[in-house]
Specification:
Elements (H helix, E strand, L loop, with lengths): L1 H5 L1 H18 L2 H115 L2 H19 L1
Length: 164
Amino acid sequence: MLHLFSDPTFVIATAFFGFFAVLIYLKVPGMVGRSLDGRADKIKSDIEQAELLCKEAQDLLSTYQKKQREAVKEAENIVNHAKEEAERMLVEGKTQLDAALKRREQMVSLRIKQAEIAATDEIRDETARLAVKATETILRNNLSAKQGTAILNQSIDNLGGQLH
């Protein structure tokens, strides 16, 4: 048996098995296993949490992209509505301008007609005044008092027949 202790292979094998026996006795493999299981559980938990965060980020991204699309559509609708409103206001403005111009044209036409009538009346009045004055001058210069009285009486008689 002594010769077994002199063999280095035997001594190394005995030390090796002894070392592992002490490790097993002290329950080192269980501690290492628990430690590795704890790390594996922590890593698994971290991965699950990262997946959850990734899913939440994807959901948020999707939500914000949807909101952006809706905002773009709303902006387009606002622009289109503003264009339509501007076109409507332009048409309405043109219509009001045309109506105002037509009213002014009618007013100018009316004023021209009134001015023509006033000018015609003024010319007629002036003509009548000149005719009366000329007649008065002619009658004064050419008629005697007796002839004037006879013409006046005849005119009064004719006037009575014209009024009935």
